[in-house]
Amino acid sequence: MDSIGVLMTCPMFDYLEQRLQNRFNLFKLWTYSSNTDFFKNNSHSIRAIVGDTKIGADAELIDSLPRLEIVSSFSVGLDKIDLRKCQQKGIRVTNTPDVLTDDVADTAIGLVLAVMRRLCECDRFVRSGLWKKCDFRLATKFSGKPVGIVGLGRIGSAIAKRAEAFGCPISYYSRSEKQETNYKYYSNIIDLAINCQILFVACALTEETHHIVNREVIDALGPKGILINIGRGPHIDEPELVSALLEGRLGGAGLDVFENEPEVPDQLFGLENVVLLPHVGTDTVETSEAMADLVINNLEAHFLKKPLLSLCRV
Ligand code: DGY
C-alpha cells in the first residue's frame, strides 16, 4: 500500500505517524503549509485523510483532493469533519469509538473528584508549605450525590456505571428515552439540571447540541451545582459559564475541553473551584495506540475492499 497517498492534517501521536509512514505514502499538511505548490503537485496522489480533534477535514480540503475516498479520524467525535460534504461526494468516514470509552469516563470521574474534593487545590496547598501553618478547608462529598448526564451513549453510560458505584442516583437527558436502562429520563435538560447536583456533558457535538448548556441550564444547576465537560467546548456557552463561576451562581466546574482550544478564558485561572485539563480524555498510551490501530486498520480494510471496522453514518 506504499503507493497510496494518505494526508495527515496535523501532528498527532508519534506511533500513529510511524505506522502510517510504514504502510502508506504519507503527506503531512503542516510540513507543506508554506508550500503553495503542494496541492498542485500532490492532490491527485491523496486518497485518504487522517484528521483529529484539532484539524479534521473541512469542505475546502475535501474539494481540493479529487481522488479522496476516505477520511479516518483519530477521535470518536466527528465535529471537525464536514460530514455533509463527505456524504455529497460519497467519501467514507471512520472514527475510533469503544476503545476510548473507559478513559474518557475515567477522566470525567477524575474531574468531579478533583473539583468536589479540591484535589488540585490540596496539592498546591502541600507544595506551597502552607500545611505547616494551617489545616486545609473542608471539601464537598461526591458519593451519593445526584448525577445528571447529558447524552447516554457509550461514554455517558460508562460515566453512569462509574457514578453508580459511588452510590449516586443517575438521571439523564437525551433526544429519546433509552429502553435498556432504569436511570431516570428527562426530556428537558433544564429539568435534569434542576434535579441533579453534578451535570456531566457527554454527548456528540452537533448543531443541535451547540451551547446546549446555556445560562438557563447553568442557573438551574445552581450555586451548589458542578458542571463537568468531557464532550466538546462548544457544548457550553463559555462566557456564560465564566460569569456564573465569577458570580458564584455555579458551584464549580471540571473542564477537559474549551470553545477555542487551546485558548482558555483567563478569568478561570484565578478560580479554585475549577479544574482545567488540556483535552486529555483519551490520552493514555494504551488508548492512543488502540485508536491509532483502528485508524490504520480502517484504512487498510478500505483499500483492500474489506468491511470497515468503524464506519460512520454520514
Ligand atoms: C475524541 O476522540 O473525540 C476525543 O475528544 C479525543 O480527544
Folded structure, characterized:
This protein is α/β, with parallel strands linked by helices. The longest helix has 19 residues, at 285-303. The chain has a seven-stranded parallel sheet with strand order 8-7-6-9-10-11-12. Strands 2-1-3-4-5 form a five-stranded parallel sheet, with helices on both faces. The mean pLDDT is 96. The protein contains eleven helices and twelve strands. Helix 1 packs parallel to helix 11 and helix 5 packs across helix 7 (154-165). It has helices at 14-23, 38-42, 59-63, 83-89, 101-116, 119-127, 154-165, 189-194, 215-221, 238-246, 285-303, and strands at residues 5-8, 25-28, 46-51, 70-73, 92-94, 147-150, 170-173, 184-186, 198-201, 226-229, 252-255, 274-276. The site of (2R)-2,3-dihydroxypropanoic acid (DGY) has 8 residues, from loops.
